[in-house]
């Protein structure tokens, strides 16, 4: 019986929608829909703000931000996860979801450590509401979603490395873009500031190391959650 059970795909276990932690549970889908819609609404507000006179970024610069790109992807992923049953989603969906968990967690951490004004407490939620949505709510939500909601499949050992492809591509894009028009999306990427390239490269090395560590933790947590669903199936 044990050997027969190992032949059953992981998706066949813990799939009862009545389970409170199943992705097809009505309340899970409702929460994902609400958070996804709120994140995208905050992006709409930011986009409108970028068209106003005196704003410090224009629309193109806004969509060059890692924060905006990450929250845009997360918003659509959450709405898609709410709209379709887990069994109808492609196998790569869960791995893509994990990638955006990494990106949003790093968005929250980088904002606290490198971007937020020095006088802003890291625990404060008293931010302009789109900033609160993108730098506080979304990063915190994805952590709970990844840890608590049943995962439908395990990832291979190289999954954290694959997740790093986008941050590396974003880094290259940011430097190419900055070399063309002189605008760098974040100060710690800007080699024209004090310290030049050595300071920028040192900062990037630390950020990429943090990405790798957090990617490994997200990967292990996702696999642990999937293994838990496999050991305790609901029927």
What does this molecule look like?
The radius of gyration is 19 Å and the shape is globular. The longest helix has 36 residues, at 196-231. α2 (26-50) packs antiparallel against α6. The protein is an all-alpha fold and 235 residues long. It has helices at residues 2-6, 26-50, 59-62, 66-83, 92-115, 129-148, 159-163, 165-181, 196-231. The chain is built from nine helices and no strands. The chain is 66% helix and 0% strand.
Question: What's a concise summary of this model?
Answer:
By secondary structure, the protein is mostly helical. Helix content is 66%, strand content 0%. Residues 1-14 have low confidence and may be disordered.
Q: Count helical runs.
A: 9
> How many angstroms separate the termini?
17 Å
Estimated helix fraction: 55-70%
Structural class: mainly alpha
C-alpha-based Rg, rounded: 19 Å
Report the order of strands and helices: HHHHHHHHH
The total strand number stands at: 0
**Strand percentage:** under 5%
Mean pLDDT: 89
**In terms of per-residue confidence, which ranges show pLDDT below 50 for 5 or more consecutive residues?**
1-14
- Main beta-sheet strand count, sense and barrel state: none
Outline type = globular
């Amino acid at each position: 019986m044990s050997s027969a059970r190992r032949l059953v795909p992981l998706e066949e276990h813990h799939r009862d929608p009545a389970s409170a932690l199943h992705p097809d549970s009505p309340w899970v889908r409702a929460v994902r829909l609400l958070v996804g819609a709120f994140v995208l609404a905050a992006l709409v507000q930011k986009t409108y703000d970028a068209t106003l006179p005196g704003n410090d970024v224009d629309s193109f610069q806004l969509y060059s931000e890692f924060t905006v790109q990450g929250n845009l992807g997360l918003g659509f992923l959450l709405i898609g996860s709410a709209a379709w049953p887990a069994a109808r989603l492609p196998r790569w969906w869960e791995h893509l979801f994990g990638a955006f968990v990494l990106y949003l967690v790093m968005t929250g951490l980088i904002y606290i450590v490198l971007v937020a004004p020095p006088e802003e407490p890291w625990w404060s939620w008293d931010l302009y509401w789109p900033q609160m949505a993108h730098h506080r709510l979304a990063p915190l939500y994805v952590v709970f979603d990844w840890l608590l909601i049943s995962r439908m499949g395990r990832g291979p050992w190289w999954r954290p490395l694959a997740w790093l492809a986008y941050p590396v591509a974003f880094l290259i894009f940011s430097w190419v873009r900055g070399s063309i028009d002189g605008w760098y999306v974040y100060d710690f990427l800007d080699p024209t500031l004090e310290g030049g390239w050595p300071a920028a490269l040192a900062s990037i090395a630390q950020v990429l190391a943090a990405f790798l560590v957090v990617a490994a933790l997200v990967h292990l947590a996702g696999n642990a959650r999937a293994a838990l669903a496999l050991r305790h199936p609901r029927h």
